Amino acid sequence: RKFIIPFRGSEIFKNRQKNNPDPAIPLYKGNPKETGYKTKEGYVTVPEMIPELVVPDLTGFKLKPYVSYRAPDVVQSEFTAQDLFNAVYSKKIVEDFNTGKLKSDGEAVDPSEAEKLTPEVAWIKARQTGSDIFSERSKREEEELYFS
Predict the structure, then answer these.
(1) 62 lies in a domain?
(2) Based on the structure, what is the number of domains in the chain?
(3) Are the beta carbons of 131 and 125 closer than 8 angstroms?
(4) Where in the cell is it found (predicted)?
(5) What percentage of the chain exceeds 90 in pLDDT?
(6) DSSP alpha helix (H) spans, the chain
């Protein structure tokens, strides 16, 4: 059975540890963490060991520090591929359509840098550091999924 740390051991063991502590079994101190160490000369305080509270300055901050329980729940639908397409490409497609910069097959006359990418280059760029895509699949499974 496990015991709470200050109550571990018999009374004899605890008294022996108080009088002649074994360095391999440190004595439990229920006090806050020490801010230094003991030497033969005395106690040495280390400034880096002193706890420091970092509190932001909220002067001029307009939001309340809590959310009321009466606040309405925010329900957001799942972000789908259609939503991503609308967010990235729809504005350019509508703009090209209105200015007449589309070919008869729907291709852009002057494509943007993203539209000029080949599927292989786009796949590599999407997996670069900072692209925000993380996959549980192996590289082979990814290649089979996208290049087969």
Answers:
(1) no
(2) 2
(3) yes
(4) Mitochondrion
(5) 11
(6) 11-19, 81-88, 90-99, 113-116, 119-126, 139-147
The boundaries of the domain holding residue 140 are 117-148
b/e 42-69 (16+ beta carbons within 10 angstroms → b)? eeeeeeeeeeeeeeeeeeeeeeeeeeee
> Does the structure show a pLDDT above 70 at 5?
no
Closest by alpha carbon to 145, among 135, 128, 115, 85? 135
Token digits of residue 51: 């706890």
Residue-wise pLDDT tens digits, 21-53: 777 777 666 677 888 999 999 999 999 989 888
| Residue 122 located in a structural domain | yes
Is residue 127 situated within a structural domain? Answer: yes
- Inside any domain, residue 18: yes
CA proximity to 112, closest of 125, 124, 131, 95: 95
Amino acid identity, position 139: K
